[in-house]
Amino acid sequence: MLLTFLDLAGVFVFALSGGVVAVEKRLDLFGVIFLAFVAAASGGVARDILIGAIPPYALQTWTYAATASAAGLLCQFGHRAILRLAAPVAVFDAVGLGLFAVVGARKALDAGLSPLMASMLGMITAIGGGMARDILTAQTPMVLQREIYALAALLGAAVVSLADWSGLPGTPAALLGAALAMGLRLLALSRRWNLPVARPKPRIRPKRRAAREDEPGEG
Question: The whole model's pTM is what?
Fold first, then answer.
């Protein structure tokens, strides 16, 4: 029951992040609902394909589509109230990140994956929806350019995986992992923490050879 609740909660908040972006991009009603569903379901679809759960769970049940559609409608008709929140897309994204990280890790463990691979699958589940949302709206994915994002999801998923490996209770581990991922992501946003960025050296253009004084001039 806890896993189902966390999963649907993650679907709703990620769908809100997709719906808010769609409204900001002035998409029509279909576009808002579609982008909300893509943001909510893409990470889970990628996870299920990788663990061999075909067809993906998001396409087997009506709950994903209904939850994402409700979030999309809320964004379409209540976007003014939603946009009054501070940085709504980033906040919704952080909450969804933590919830999907622990759900993805738990499902990967149930499929028989090792704790390391389950942590990686938890991270993929968490970042997949945001990446799909940003790509469809012609933006560089947040995971590639902003404050700590994928690392927060990986650490949250790792808490669930390590607890399972150690034989500790799963419910407290899931709540702790989700809180860790959310908290780290929001803290990184407020403190502007970033991982090191590659800075290529500028190319040094060769200087043009000075004209020789002994070269004959014109006239």
Answer: 0.75
